Amino acid sequence: EDQVTQSPEALRLQEGESSSLNCSYTVSGLRGLFWYRQDPGKGPEFLFTLYSAGEEKEKERLKATLTKKESFLHITAPKPEDSATYLCAAEGSGGYNKLIFGAGTRLAVHP
Amino acid sequence: DADVTQTPRNRITKTGKRIMLECSQTKGHDRMYWYRQDPGLGLRLIYYSFDVKDINKGEISDGYSVSRQAQAKFSLSLESAIPNQTALYFCATSAGTGATTVRGRETQYFGPGTRLLVL
After folding, report:
1. In B61-88, which positions are buried (b, 16+ CB within 10 angstroms) versus exposed (e)?
2. Do B44 and A45 touch (CB under 8 A)?
3. A96 falls in which pLDDT band (50, 70, 90)?
4. Three-class secondary structure assignment of B73-103
5. In angstroms, rounded to a whole number, what is the distance separating the alpha carbons of residues A92 and A101?
6. Min distance A29 CA to chain B CA atoms (Å)
7. Which of B31, B40, B112 sits opposite A43 (nearest CB)?
């Protein structure tokens, strides 16, 4: 059964304290691994898509990486405005754009 | 203006009532989706539609129905609402066939959500 697991469930950081969020997946024939940011009361906002192991993408303080079993979202020198829930989703070879979502990691960055 | 809009944003209803949640998009995308989000769980797919004539059940379709009135509109109905349908509901869209690039057309873009409470 296709599955996506995110850890930790919640993470509290001090401003400037770098860390990583983990997304482990068991999906047949990964077609894409997606990262979204979700603010309270809002819909998920697209961040990155990774397609193959070894691929990396960056946006401001965020960097996403992908291996054959997991993806990491690295947050470098975070700021309070980075506080949000980060969602990971995988599309398998069953395809048809059917995404399997993890439960998310709630990130709180304190000044 | 937002590319994907949902109405209403909040709804309180009673058990047994029929309600409809609506989604509209101006992105010109062919594919539309309905998800629900519950605390501690990932987003779960209810229904998806690849064009006006193509509608498919997702992971948790029981108790729900949908209508694709046009390329830009996709509605979700709860025929007889029950308390365990209390959740956040999100509509999403993605470009399907006809996009100019292959990679990227699968990216799903989400609306702001509808918070539903069934009493």
Report:
1. eeebebebeebbebbbebeebeeebbbb
2. no
3. low
4. EEEEEECCCCHHHCEEEEEEEECCCCCCCCC
5. 12
6. 15
7. B112
Peptide bond just before B8 cis, omega within 30 deg: yes
Q: Are A92 and A28 in contact (CB under 8 A)?
A: yes
C-alpha distance from A35 to closest chain B C-alpha (Å): 10
How many interface pairs between A and B have CB atoms less than 8 angstroms apart? 58
Per residue in A36-93, pLDDT (tens digit) is 999 998 999 999 999 999 999 999 999 999 999 999 999 999 999 999 999 999 988 7
